[in-house]
Every structure is written in C-alpha cells, then in structure tokens.
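Hi all, long-time lurker, first post. I run a small reading group and we've been trying to get comfortable going from sequence to structure in the token notation. Rather than ask abstract questions, I figured I'd post a concrete chain and ask someone more experienced to write out its structure so we can walk through it together at our next meeting. Sequence below, copied exactly:
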Amino acid sequence: MPKLKLPAPPIPDRINPKPKRPGKKTGPEDLKEHALEAGASTVDWIDERTSLAGGARWMMFRKVPKGTNWFYTLGSATMFAFLSQAVTGVFLAMYYDPSATRAYESIRYINNEVFLGEFVHAMHKWGSSVMVILIFLHMGRTFFFGAYKYPRELNWVIGVVLLVLTMTMAFTGYLLPFDQRSYWATIVGVNINGTGPIVGPYLSEFLRAGPYFGATTLSRFYAIHMLLVPGAIAALMGFHLYLVAKLGTTAPPWVKAEPPEKLREESVTA
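-- Answer (accepted) --
Happy to help. Here is the structure in token form:
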C-alpha cells in the first residue's frame, strides 16, 4: 500500500520577512540592515549546501494534540538538565584529576580556588538529582497518559534505556569526589550489583576493574561517567526526539477525539 506523503507545514507569518515599503531603495541603508542582510545571506548559503531548513521546519513546526499542557514539557526539561550536566561536567573535567591520591584534592581545589568553581560544582552535583527526578516524572507522564502504546513502543523502550543510563551516570559520578562517604557508598552499591543473577558477579568485577577496589576503580568510573554513558545518552536522545517528531505526541486520556465535520453532518441528516 503506497504511503501518503503529507506536505510540509507552512512557515508562520511572524518569521517570514516583511515586504519593503513602496518606493524604498533596495539594499541596506544602515549598519543594522547590513548586519541582518549579512546574517540572512550566511544562513541562505549554508542552507543551499546542506538543506537543513526542511529538516528544521519538520522538527519545529508540528501540530500538537488538543489538551496539551505543562506535563508535556517534562521531556524537554530532562534534555535541558542533561545539557546542563554536560556543560558543567566539561568545565569540571578541566580541573579534576581521576587519581586515587589526588581526586579529593582536585575537588577541594575546584571548590576553594577556581573562579566560580564551587558554583559550577554545585550545579553539577544538584543538577544530577534534578535530572533523575525529571526523567522519572517524564516516564510517569508517558505511562499514565498511555503514550507507550502503538505506534510508540520503540520510543518507550528507548526511554527505559535512557532511564537506566541516567541512573548509571548518577551512580558512577557519586564516587568521583572520592571522600569517605562516596567511597563506602560505592562499595555497597557495587556489592549489591554483584548479588544479581548470572551477570551480577561479572558486572561487579567490571565496575571494580578487578576483584577488589583499587587505583583503577576510580579511573574506570570516571571513563564510564565522562565518556561512555553521556555518549550513549546523546545518541539515544537524538533518536528519541526523531521518533517524537515523526510519530507526534498523544492527547491526554481525558480528551475525546472530535469526529470530522462531514461525518457529523451525515449523522445529523440521518
């Protein structure tokens, strides 16, 4: 059965360029118009070679179901929290030393010596809790609104994987300050993982980077926290957003679909 190709949504009037007044000279007259024309020419030059405008229109200008409310912003809020974690994590990585003998001292240096270091560290520390809370709320909204049903099952599976990766990133980041609390809490967490069936002991040994906690354990947690998990989250989040744009969002369960006007007229005349 051939697929129906829908036309691209129209561009809103508010972002279309306004027509020039009659009798106005062509070309820019002041510095502001010169800057606007240069920017538009640059965007046109890039779009002519990449055709990104079509994809941007497809992603941004979409119809949303009736009854959409603030609950639908939880996914965007979670993505913003991840971006905040990524940006602050990059700045912290510039000063952090993943060494068993210097990790704690590097954190102390960030908080006490680096300009705005304590602020950035606090954003990263508390931002992790905010991201975990937001992703649980987003998953709860998706479940209770029935957004996991056909044809969005794959997007639900990707969301569950993103939830697991978020918890993994929070767990691996807890050890990085390498103080007494994070050290013993991580030992408890790794031992709990080791009690899992079949793969538990192997997972526990992988996280420890050996049979016991050692100097390489911190380096492994740092690599997982800084490289492996964020890369996987970014890739899956991009695919997740693509499916959201392709399949659309579901209406709240309390909103009933209205019949088309033609069917309504036929039912009245009958």
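A couple of things your group might point at:
Residues 70-247 form a domain with the Cytochrome Bc1 Complex; Chain C fold (CATH 1.20.810.10).
The chain has ten helices and no strands.
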